[in-house]
Amino acid sequence: MLRLSVLDQSVALSGQSQAASIRETLALAQHAEALGYHRFWVSEHHSHPSIVGSAPEVLMAAIAATTDTIRIGSAGVMLPHYSALKVAEQFRVLDALAPGRIDMGVGRAPGSDMRTARLLNPDPRQSAENFPVQVRELQTWVSGIDFPAGHPGHGVEASPSGPTTPDLWMLGSSDYGAQLAAHYGLPYAFAWFITEGQGAAEALALYRRLYQPSLAHPTPEAVLCVWALAADTEQEAWVHFSGRERWKIDRNQGGLGPLLSPQEVAQRPYTRSEQVQSDQLRANALVGSGAQVANKLRQLAAEHAVNELVVITWAHSPEARIASYSLLAQEFALNPVNPS
Length: 340
Description:
By secondary structure, this protein is of the alpha/beta class. The chain has helices at 18-35, 56-66, 84-97, 114-120, 124-129, 131-143, 175-184, 192-195, 200-210, 234-252, 262-266, 272-284, 290-303, 318-331, and strands at 3-8, 39-42, 71-78, 102-107, 167-172, 188-190, 222-231, 286-289, 308-312.
């Protein structure tokens, strides 16, 4: 059985406040749980005109308080900005709020421009180079294992303790994250939506070949995070896709901003070079009717031998976004959850 999960990035929408995007993420989490999705992950970005989710651990706490069964996670916490001990404490608190439901996804990327990264951490280059050590320390603290004598963290605990622990995930879009996840025996999420699939096969093969079993994860566990959008008809799906398409073309030209509505996109005809980019994006996009997108997702999962896909959907209309996840839930026969 192929499991489906959700990654939401709290996308800024034209004509709407950024605060509303955060509230829509919270509402989407509740819908995802009701539809039977396995996980709901939220991302971390800083000073980003398009993606406004800056504090995943805070948003996760709100989701934990308003859901009952779905796993909740970060995709991810950008660990070089922070102390591993503080992150461990935050996620131990989250696990106390939602025992056994917390995924702690971490990444090395800044999630921002370098000027913002320096404001978050005055020495991000040194921290990024120290990322493997941070991951090991985070893994130790969140598991409640003491450091050996002589380590600065010996005798220091990440509270609160409890019968369950957050599940640590490595996020990545290159061979680096795959090798680190394999070395530490961690589950691995490849960001297909960032690379358009480039490097995915190589990273997954490396991860599986080098994997060193851990107590929590004796076998490798990999997922793909993909961008997809479904609607009642293929034509309708392409209309809703137009905002994401316009955003990607603008981004390639150095422009970032809120996601535009299909009506706003229609008022900006493509230049010849932009039309070429549009054709390329549409050729590879996981867009269409529910059945069409479901078939593409099944093929992708089979090709890369994964049993879970984490789906990201951008649409200017919140109703279109919810409808897309609903259609995929139907196509994959997810088990709906009755609200408590």
